[in-house]
Amino acid sequence: MEVITSFTIDHSVLKPGIYVSREDEGFITFDLRITEPNKEPWVDPTAMHTLEHLMATWFRNRETVKEDVVYVGPMGCMTGMYVIMKTSALHPQWTAQQMRELTIECLQWIVQQQEVPATTPETCGNCLYHNLPLAHYWASLYCDRLCNDFHSEYTKLEVILDNGMRFQDA
Ligand SMILES: [Zn+2]
To answer: Does residue 73 sit within a domain?
Structure first.
């Protein structure tokens, strides 16, 4: 296998913010980084699950945006969320700044919610695995960060595994 020269992100200096993780033909994957990897506590999986339900609900109901939302889901490392948007006639491009404004709006809605949507055995694969108070905590903190200390530029790091394969956290 040929060694592929690839650049991936340096998690040791990654700050909470919103980053373009990948750009594919017609699709843009955003890294909604909630907490600082390996330095701050990760988001408890129960709270992350709740954030996933609430964020997905909001994005898929938000007028002018909902048609372009492909996917909302947590990172395995529990430090952030991926949101995949497709480009369209209305939105030929998506930027981190656009996602910042949408996510702030979403988080402000989340902290007002007193129920988690879709938490029955029919609608969720682990319907007791939720934590709304902790989801509120992270939503509030992340919202403050996006408003006051916004980061959107990755620091790149070259990572090539011994077998020549490239590694990417997505
Ligand atoms: Zn669920």
So the answer is: yes
- CATH number of the domain where residue 71 is located: 3.30.1360.80
**Inter-helix orientation angle 45-59/96-110, to 10°:** 110
Separation of CA 35 and ligand 1 centre (Å): 21
Q: pLDDT tens, 100-122? A: 999 999 999 999 999 999 999 99
**Measured in angstroms, how far is the CA atom of residue 46 from the centroid of ligand 1?**
10
How many domains does the structure of the chain reveal?
1
Residue 73 CA to ligand 1 center (angstroms) comes to 10
pTM of the predicted model as reported, rounded to 2 decimal places: 0.89
In the structure, ligand 1 is a single-atom ion and the residues with CB under 5 Å from it are: 124
Note whether residue 126 is domain-resident.
Answer: yes
- Residue 114: CB partners within 8 Å, gap ≥ 6? 132
Residue 14, domain extent: 7-150
- Distance between Cα 119 and ligand 1 center (Å): 7
Count of other CB atoms within 10 angstroms of residue 78: 17
For residue 141, how far is its CA from the centre of ligand 1 (angstroms)? 22
Q: What is the pLDDT of residues 136-153, one digit of tens each?
A: 999 999 999 999 999 999
